[in-house]
Amino acid sequence: MTLLESIIMGIIQGATEFLPVSSSGHLAIFKNIFGVNTDTGILFDILLHFGTLLAIFIIYRKDIGELIIEGFAIIGTALRNAGVFAANLFSKEKKSYRKIVTTPYRRFVLLVIVSTLVTMVIALPFEKYIGNAGNTLLVPGICLCITSFILFIADRLKSGEKDASTATYKNSLFVGLAQGIATLPGISRSGSTITAGLACGFSREFAVKYSFIMSIPAILGACILEIPDLAAASLTKAEVANYIVGMAVAAVVGYVCIKAMLLMVKKNKFMGFSIYCLCAGIISVVCYFVL
Question: How confident is the model at residue 92 (pLDDT cuts 50, 70, 90)?
Answer without folding.
Answer: confident
